[in-house]
UniProtKB/TrEMBL annotation:
<protein>
    <submittedName>
        <fullName>Protein phosphatase 6, regulatory subunit 2b</fullName>
    </submittedName>
</protein>
<dbReference type="InterPro" id="IPR007587">
    <property type="entry name" value="SAPS"/>
</dbReference>
<dbReference type="GO" id="GO:0005829">
    <property type="term" value="C:cytosol"/>
</dbReference>
<dbReference type="GO" id="GO:0005634">
    <property type="term" value="C:nucleus"/>
</dbReference>
<dbReference type="GO" id="GO:0019903">
    <property type="term" value="F:protein phosphatase binding"/>
</dbReference>
<dbReference type="InterPro" id="IPR016024">
    <property type="entry name" value="ARM-type_fold"/>
</dbReference>
<dbReference type="GO" id="GO:0019888">
    <property type="term" value="F:protein phosphatase regulator activity"/>
</dbReference>
<comment type="similarity">
    <text>Belongs to the SAPS family.</text>
</comment>
<dbReference type="Pfam" id="PF04499">
    <property type="entry name" value="SAPS"/>
</dbReference>
Length: 725
């Protein structure tokens, strides 16, 4: 056994700690220093928690290493120091969090005027974040006493590690009362307003991107936390409230569109608006995010956000018509003279989100701007941009699945349940929401005519040998949305009436034929069963692994028998086809050839030690089939079925080939001149009279001047195999 030997190697850390002049650098050079620290090595912890050692560790993660050090080893000590400081050892956390001088040393990293080293910033953020989690009260009290801590962090927001530090303050503070205190403090420091100010054309791209991402994460974290605490707490999140203020929304849009326009600023600002308009985490298409399935209520969109956006919808309309200039782009489909661009894509996403809000004044403004018609124009113009196509599809779905005045809702799988807080909604504006938008889509935007014309154009293109248009899949789904909502209407038949009453006669017939024939056939093709389709469309839920593949019990021991696994073979069903005469011949020959095992015969022990003697005959097990080899000059005797023999006589003078003959039941080889003895049974053939294949009348065709004669070997091979029945 292994424990018989003393294989335990004493740690090199212990040997170093026995030295009186051991240095921290010597310990950091050891590979197992982190492991020993996590294992609560008391001697090591006592050394690390000395004031001098702690100060040196903090300096390693906050100061640039020597420039003359080898690049791959330059940040080695800083990395190990960060791991030691964040390895969740209470002695280290208590030492740093309870010593204000050490906290000041760590905090001094933020007070640099120059740009931060991104790697050192990540070490600092990780160490400070660990203290926020483990020593919350002490650290929060320390930060509150610092002058303009938020300003110091936002000054270096171009480094993503600072964004992580802000989010740690929001998400890692416990208990709830202390977290609420921290949120109130951050709101008093105008965190939201300061972040909005950074999303400005004058800020660099990294700062704008990190500011936007920080705001989006604050929205999601605060909203999720509010959902978890909505039954136990009536307090509101001050940061979330600040984000909903109309003046803050207008300030963001003002930075995006007034003065110098910047594509980066517009994209990052739109992402913040989208985060506030979304109600559930985006998941797989047509599948609700599992994280939000347990929530009974949908997140609400405050009316102040919509009121802040409404005056600026004209800017988004102008943006879709006149986007930032883009260079010509080479794609797999050829040269793209006018790329659609990320800016217009975000504007399209915002329009879809606004349509799902069911806000009457927003819908009215979109109709007046003819926004939906513009999006449909872009849909067909950029035929290969599926990112745009899915957004236009969402817009159409949002309009057709409107809530009617009597409370009926035309749902669809793509519908996102949104609620708007608008106390000024009236029955008249509700009627516009339900009827006006649908009428605008079908009549003014000519949705049905566009579908038919685009489909016909695609058919002509394909008939001429061209490629199928890239939007055809989404166009099929849009057509299905129109048909399904027209069929689902019960008391209101607005869609059907608009198609019958407002559609030109030519298009009425075409639409009816299209729905009954073309669309139906297309849907059949699209719903054809595919291999493993059940697994491909299966939602990734918590029990997905349990439902996929083989069951665990299939790998068990079952009843313990070796043959248990093979018993399942009996469950396999075979369909044998009777081939008539061939089948009868096969059965006949099988009965003639197959013989049962002779269980009475003594089995040969294959593990028994035997002396190998090449001069004696080797007998094989008769029931296994095979070949016999004996060094004799005569025949091999057997009491079993016929086989075939190759015989090599003493005067055989060629090493290269053997004389082989087969008993095929015919007279190919003629009659044998050899006489069988009385003790020999029928069924054997001897070929001693045959000459070797490699020899001729002129003598052997061998390269050797003298060929040594070989002893006679007789080989026996069974012509049939026994079957275990």
């Amino acid at each position: 056994m292994f424990w018989k030997f003393d294989l335990h190697n004493s740690s090199q850390i212990e040997k170093l700690l026995e030295k009186e002049d051991v240095t921290l650098q010597e310990l950091l050079d050891e590979d197992d220093v982190l492991q020993e620290c996590k294992a609560q090595n008391q001697r090591l912890l006592l050394f690390l928690t000395r004031d001098s050692s702690m100060l040196e560790l903090l300096n390693l993660i906050t100061h640039e290493p020597p420039a003359d050090r080898e690049e791959r080893l330059r940040y080695k000590y800083a990395n190990v120091a960060c791991e030691l400081l964040t390895c969740d050892v209470s002695l280290i956390n208590d030492k740093v969090g309870g010593d204000e001088s050490l906290m000041n040393t760590l905090y001094s990293f933020l007070e640099q005027k120059s740009a931060l080293n991104p790697l050192l910033a990540s070490f600092f953020s990780k160490a400070f974040g660990n203290l926020i989690t483990r020593k919350t009260e002490q650290v929060i009290g320390f930060l509150k006493n610092k002058e303009d801590f938020i300003g110091q962090v936002l000054k270096h927001l171009d480094t993503s590690a600072m964004m992580d530090l802000v989010l740690r303050l929001i998400s890692s503070v416990e208990p709830v009362c202390l977290r609420q205190e921290v949120l109130t403090w951050l709101n008093e420091e105008r965190l939201i307003q300061r972040l909005i100010e950074l999303i400005h054309p004058h800020s660099d791209g990294e700062t704008q991107s990190n500011a936007s991402q920080t705001l989006c994460d604050i929205i999601r974290l605060s909203r999720d936390q509010a959902s978890l605490l909505q039954e136990t707490s009536e307090t509101t999140d001050p940061l979330l409230t600040a984000l909903e203020l109309q003046q803050n929304v207008e300030a963001l849009l003002k930075n995006m569109f007034e003065g110098e326009k910047s594509e980066v600023c517009i994209v990052n600002g739109t992402q913040v608006l989208l985060a506030r308009l979304e109600t559930r985490r985006p998941g797989v298409e047509q599948v609700i995010d599992p994280c939000s399935q347990g929530l009974e209520k949908s997140y609400t969109v405050n009316n102040s956000i919509l009121m802040g956006i409404q005056p600026h919808l004209k800017h988004f309309h102008h943006l879709l018509l006149n986007p930032p200039k883009k260079c010509v782009m080479l794609t797999t489909m050829g040269v793209l003279e006018e790329p659609f661009g990320n800016t217009r894509l975000h504007a399209s996403r915002l329009m879809a989100a606004l349509l799902y809000t069911r806000a009457p004044r927003i819908h009215l403004e979109l109709c007046q701007l003819n926004m939906i018609n513009l999006l449909l124009d872009l849909f067909f113009k950029f035929s290969w941009n599926n990112f745009l196509h899915i957004q236009v599809e969402h817009c159409v779905s949002a309009i057709l699945n409107q809530t009617t005045p009597n409370g009926k809702t035309h749902d669809s799988p793509d519908q996102i349940q949104l609620e708007t807080q608008d106390t000024q909604n009236s029955e008249k504006t509700d009627m516009f929401t339900c009827c006006g938008m649908i009428k605008h889509l079908l009549k003014d935007c000519r949705l049905v005519q566009r579908i038919l014309d685009a489909w016909e154009e695609n058919d002509k293109t394909q008939e001429a040998g061209g490629m199928r248009k890239g939007y055809m899949g989404h166009l099929t789904r849009i057509a299905n949305t129109v048909v399904q909502n027209a069929e689902r209407e019960q008391e209101q038949t607005q869609i059907a009436q608009l198609i019958k009453g407002k559609l030109p006669e030519e298009y009425k017939a075409r639409w009816e034929q299209f729905v009954n024939e073309t669309l139906t056939e297309t849907n059949k093709k699209n719903t054809a069963d595919l291999v493993f389709s059940d697994y491909q469309i299966q939602q990734m839920t918590a029990n997905f692994v349990d439902q996929f593949g083989l069951n665990d019990d299939e790998f068990g021991d079952h009843d313990g028998r070796i043959s248990a696994t093979f018993d399942r073979i009996t469950e396999i069903k075979f369909n044998l086809v009777d081939e008539g005469a061939s089948s009868a011949i096969f059965e006949t020959r099988t009965k003639e050839r197959i013989r049962p095992f002779d269980d009475a015969e003594e089995e040969e022990d294959i593990w028994e030690d035997k002396e190998i003697n090449y001069a004696t005959q080797v007998k094989a097990r008769k029931e296994r089939g095979g070949w016999w080899l004996s060094q004799t000059s005569g025949y091999v005797h057997s009491s079993h079925s016929p086989g075939w023999i190759a015989s090599f006589e003493d005067d055989f003078s060629c090493r290269d080939f053997t004389s082989i003959a087969m008993d095929t039941g015919s007279s190919v080889w003629g009659s044998s001149t050899a006489q069988l003895s009385e003790t020999e049974e029928k069924g054997w053939a001897t070929f001693t009279d045959f000459q070797p294949f490699c020899c001729s009348d002129a003598g052997p065709r061998c390269s050797s001047p003298k060929v040594s004669p070989l002893p006679a070997y007789t080989i026996y091979i069974y012509t049939h195999t026994h079957t275990h029945t």
